[in-house]
Write a structure and sequence with these properties.
- The protein is an alpha/beta fold and 305 residues long.
- The protein has one domain: Cytosolic phospholipase A2 catalytic domain (3-Layer(aba) Sandwich), CATH 3.40.1090.
- It has 13 helices and eight strands.
- It comes from Lottiidibacillus patelloidae.
Length: 305
């Protein structure tokens, strides 16, 4: 079956760019039938699925300066840079309520990527099977090595999905998406370098050699994924949103002005490329309709109003 997926990179607070792009797509009532993300990408994607306009903006911009959200104090007191209890329990249940009902019954597929630290392999969880556990799985997908605790779920020990599959394009393709829209949170010329913190990882995770191995190879995994995306972009199989201006934001950014600028950059980039996106979607829909006629397959629709 041919359909178009939406693939969301993580990146911590750089994910504010993704929030801006998704906000524009929601303003246009454009929803893709399949959405997959890791870390911040999965978090932003969940509010896209639940149809909650501006929720990502509020979470990313209005709470980032609260000590419970992100601070050195968190790490000293709780050994976690981001207070995961605050972000994944208090925020969605008290301060900025998450619409679990709309999320659960949304027609779109939603996949969260995580890393199994025992095997060093990616583990993916779908909304259809795990909708009641999504907050915990988003937490697992966002648990950055060393600065966040391991999340235990169904006899598995999980960490940040971006470790082993930072931009889960191959998973989307395996799930039947011949074409994909990808939202990246790095500039076009970014090349990831090998970590200089290998010795810390070996101390923290000495019982998990498979995890240590993928952490050491993380730069290669990322750069190879980007090369693949660029190749498929040139072939017309992938449509990419990436920051059009030089990034000024780190993954642990707390400067509200910089984050606001990044959010509106995402919104503006989506606005600028919207007509091109619609044309790209239309052409792929025509292609898949022609294939459907020949193969008698049903093509998943994309909602555009």
């Amino acid at each position: 079956m041919n359909k178009i997926g939406l693939v969301l990179e993580g990146g911590g607070m750089r994910g504010t760019y993704t929030a801006g792009v998704l906000e524009f797509l929601m303003d246009k009532n454009l929803y893709f039938p399949y959405v997959i993300g890791v870390s911040a990408g999965a978090c932003n994607g969940s509010s896209y699925i639940s149809r909650q306009k501006e929720r990502n903006k509020i979470v990313n911009l209005e709470y980032v300066n609260q000590p419970q959200y992100l601070s050195a104090r968190n790490f000293i007191k709780k050994q976690q840079l981001f207070d995961m209890d605050f972000i994944f329990e208090e925020l969605p249940n008290i301060h900025v309520p998450f619409d679990y009902e709309t999320f659960k019954y949304a027609k779109e597929q939603f996949i969260v990527g995580t890393t199994d630290i025992s095997t060093g392999k990616p583990i993916y969880f779908s909304k259809e099977q795990y909708h009641d556990h999504i907050p915990l799985l988003l937490r697992a997908s966002s648990s950055i090595p060393i600065v966040a605790p391991v999340v235990e779920f169904e006899d598995m020990k999980l960490l940040d999905g971006g470790i082993v599959d930072p931009i889960p394009i191959k998973k989307s393709e395996l799930d039947g998406n011949s074409f994909n829209v990808v939202i990246l949170t790095r500039n076009d010329d970014y090349v990831k370098k090998q970590t200089k913190m290998k010795w810390i990882a070996k101390r923290f995770y000495k019982e998990y050699p498979a995890l240590i191995k993928v952490l050491e190879e993380r730069h290669e995994i990322y750069n190879n994924t980007i090369s693949y995306i660029k190749d498929q972009e040139e072939k017309g199989n992938i449509f990419v949103f990436r920051p059009s201006s030089r990034l000024k934001v780190s993954s642990i950014e707390r400067n509200t002005a910089k984050l606001t600028e990044l959010y509106y950059l995402g919104y503006k980039d989506a606005q600028t490329k919207y007509e091109h996106l619609l044309s790209w979607i239309k052409q792929r829909t025509i292609d898949t309709e022609e294939q459907k006629d020949s193969n008698h397959e049903k093509v998943a629709p994309i909602k555009v109003v």
